[in-house]
Amino acid sequence: MAKIFHYFHYISYLFTIPAIYYVFHGSMFRPDNFIDEVGSGIFFMGFSFAFSSMGDIKKISKKEQKLFVNPKKFKQHILSIMSVGIVMIITCLFFISIKWIGNNKLQAEKYYNLGLNCMPIVIAIFFELKQINDKKSYFDFINERKC
Q1: How does DSSP assign the chain, residue by residue?
Q2: Measured distance CA(33)–CA(120) in Å, rounded
Q3: What are 28-56's pLDDT values in tens digits?
Q4: Rg, the chain, Cα only
Q5: 102: phi > 0 → left, psi -120 to 50 → alpha, else beta; which?
Q6: How far apart are CA 116 and CA 120, in angstroms?
Q7: What pLDDT, in 10s, does the model give residues 4-28?
Q8: Is 126:86 a contact under the CB 8 Å cutoff?
Q9: Which of 49, 68, 97, 116: CA 20 to 30 A from 22?
Q10: pLDDT at 147 over 70
């Protein structure tokens, strides 16, 4: 089962391509439809982040090992991921609420869709928190067995 999820990790690259395309295409070539294009790019970026967190917890990089050994840095890392998640939730709710408080209905609808398109990033952040926590648990378990 772990191998299946590890292979799902590679699907993230398929979502990265349209994310890059929509963000750059919308910002450079479609200034009139900028918000919709960038919103689609953010939507695909969220799915890319979500699938990238499905990697194997047994594969721990040297950088992650240094992070796991130092509890203070690990706590700071978790807090930074959580703060990004909180900021993204607030951003999503702000863009969604513009639909009801905005004067320009067409522009308000575009921001509403942008807020909805940001939701996969919020979900991906929670997946990343789970992934890093599982890697830390596995790292601690392996180090206890070595002793």
Answers
A1: -HHHHHHHTTHHHHHHHHHHHHHHHHHHH-GGGHHHHHHHHHHHHHHHHHHHTTS-TT---HHHHHHHH-HHHHHHHHHHHHHHHHHHHHHHHHHHHHHHH-S-HHHHHHHHHHHHHTHHHHHHHHHHHHHHHHHHHHHHHHHHHH-
A2: 21
A3: 887 778 888 889 999 999 999 999 888 88
A4: 19
A5: beta
A6: 8
A7: 877 888 888 999 999 999 988 877 8
A8: no
A9: 97
A10: no
Q: What is the crossing angle of helices 34-52 and 105-117, to 10°?
A: 10
Instruction: Give the range of the structural domain holding residue 19, as residue numbers without chain letter.
Output: 2-146
Burial 57-95 (b: 16+ CB within 10 A, else e): beebeeebeebbeeeeebeebeeeeeeebeebeeebeeb
Q: How many domains does the chain have?
A: 1
Burial class (CB in 10 A: 0-12, 13-18, 19+), 142: exposed
Q: State the pTM of this model.
A: 0.82
Q: Which residue has the tokens 């601690």?
A: 140
Q: What residues have CB less than 8 Å from 131, skipping those under 6 apart?
A: 53, 54, 55, 57
